[in-house]
Amino acid sequence: MPKPIYVLNGPNLNLLGSREPHIYGTTTLEDVRVLCEARAVALGHTVVFRQSNHEGQLIDWVQEARQGACAVVINPAGYGHTSVALLDALKTLTIPIIECHLSNPAAREAFRRHTYVSLAATGVVSGFGAHSYELAIEAAAGQSAKADAPA
Ligand code: DQA
Question: What does pTM read for this prediction?
Fold first, then answer.
């Protein structure tokens, strides 16, 4: 069994379902966790699914993923647009990093068009609501298999 895929969620995503539902939908973070687990299990993986409103906590989990994960899916939420420290932590990883957003930040306010996380990401999935996470799990599983394949 490969190491788990870490799915890390940033600030305010604990409020999914009731937070700006016209943008983020009515799916809760618990619903998202269930979707991620189902998709991962179907692909022969497990997930470690976490959320924090605190930048340092997210960084600690990224550091933990250096040893503990085969890939990271991260929805950095607002910290994606602001956190050089989170970028620096992600840059220490040698495993695939999939940046994931429910909305399509490129189609929103100008300040959302840039994310620091993208500078470290293997790829980005955005704009598909909760389905973005399922696509991100597929990408994480595929990329980690590719990274493990003999040359
Ligand atoms: C988000 C997009 C970010 O711009 C925003 O700050 C979030 C959620 C998304 O999933 O669409 O909190 O990451």
Answer: 0.96
